[in-house]
Amino acid sequence: MNQTIKSKDWTVLGIAAIICTIIFIFMEIVPAIIAINKHEYGGKAIPKTVAEERAGAFAAEQTGLTVTKAHAVHQSDKLLAGYLSKEKKTEQFENKYDAQFPVDTFQVNVNFADGKGYGFVYVHMYNEGIIGWNLIVDGTAASLQETQELTNDFLYGGGILQGQDRSNATMGRNGELRQRIGGYAVEGANLTIATKVISMDGKLVLSQYKPAFDVPDTYKAYVKKQDKLAGWLTGIGYGFMSFVLGILAIIYAVLYRKHTSFTYGIILTAVFFIAYVIMNLGVMDGIIASQGETRLDSFLTIGVTITTIVMSVAMAVSIYFSLVAGDGLWKAQGRSLWPRMKDPGYGDYVWRSMGLSYLFALIMLGLQPVIFFVLGKLIGTWGATDVTMSPYNIKYLWLMPVLAWAAAISEEAVYRFFGIGLFRRWFRNTFAAAIIPTIVWALGHVMYPFYPSTTRLFELIVIGLIFSFIFVRYGFITAMFTHAIFNSVAVGSSMIFAGETVNIVSALFFIALPFFIAFILKAWSNRKRTNPPTRSTIHP
Length: 540
Fold this sequence. Notes:
Blueprint: H1 7-38, H2 48-63, E1 67-76, H3 78-86, H4 90-97, E2 104-112, E3 117-124, E4 130-137, E5 140-141, H5 144-157, E6 169-171, E7 176-186, E8 189-200, E9 203-214, H6 217-255, H7 266-281, H8 284-290, H9 298-332, H10 346-379, E10 382-383, H11 401-427, H12 430-443, E11 450-451, H13 455-474, H14 476-498, H15 501-527
Antiparallel strand pairs: 1-2, 2-3, 3-4, 4-9, 5-8, 6-7, 7-8, 8-9, 10-11
């Protein structure tokens, strides 16, 4: 067993953890609490069932048709959210326009009876107001004059807008009237309203009302370019290179089989597979929201489910062989970075690994906002929104932390345990061995909604090298536990702020899970008498 920690090391790590915890609290937790307290509705969103009821009743009243199904998802204007964040105008926008034109809404997808159409109704997430809709039903497009008259009656007669410029309206080929509203703007983002009027059974119906703040074209072009860059970096730098690592893992598992066993890592792989499938099938609402006003049929849903399972199997295979090959590579180099349960001192080893993991996780939680702060000063980093991973689009939010554990298992297995072991075998240099898989791992996160797209690349190279140090110095279990705690706190924070007892209990349970695992394994090791004292040391 290769882990004896000096008391001085515990002291240094403990002090660093305390300092970084204070930084994390003041840079992450306190601003979040302040934002909630300042929020007009206390940050408490209405239940999605309420949004569905409001949207269904509105769609039925607006069209005279029967609504058979209503399903709500969290929707967000990613372009506007990012632009306001970049210009530091988010709070100003919320104070001035959020009640009528919020960035975030519940998009309720409705279906009408007898195949007479479908639509999308947008409900305010906090005050239940209907703030937009697009109802696709049978009807005859109204004339330009009829569309303008009904639109103006709705906007100005209904009190939505008061005394604004009614000019600058253009009619599209599909009968959609678009007009820019004077006097409604934030830092170059101007309010544009799209409406459409149809005739149903001789009655004029406002079938579409969609207000949106149109950001400058230069910002749109920049985001498009950055998203394209992120796509290439993810596809080539992460996707292709991860595939190559997966193939190499199979090859090296066979080449180094005499140093390891093919029974190694089966349980951990199974845990990953189950967790990954559960979470990916639970984010279907995120996929629906990401498609905007695209009607997803049952065949597409089945296709997404099958694709998820196939990808999960492929990833599980890669993780399994990475664990086997990584074990063989490290043992061939004279290191045992993931001891077996039957090894003497195993229980104490896991217990110390757990203690170290909490300290390292706290240190990294404090470092991350500092890194973002520095990147903000150096390259002007800002964030946008991502509905695919919104807490409101998770079917079982209380299970969200299992994704944190799935990421910890898979990423530490592939990019640290196997990746560093492989390149260390090739280059005979630990830093060179760490930097290559760290870059590959970091490139897998550039699609996150941060700009410039290289933001998370720079951030995670730093974070990844710290994970690499923890792994090489203290072993696989310490690195995996640290990663899981780090992710669980990040995920758990959003769950706690979302409220509900089940979410809060789940968040706290998963954060504490390494402690329970280590306690059980230590007790088991003592009972089996495989846990005598050990004085062996960590090798650099």
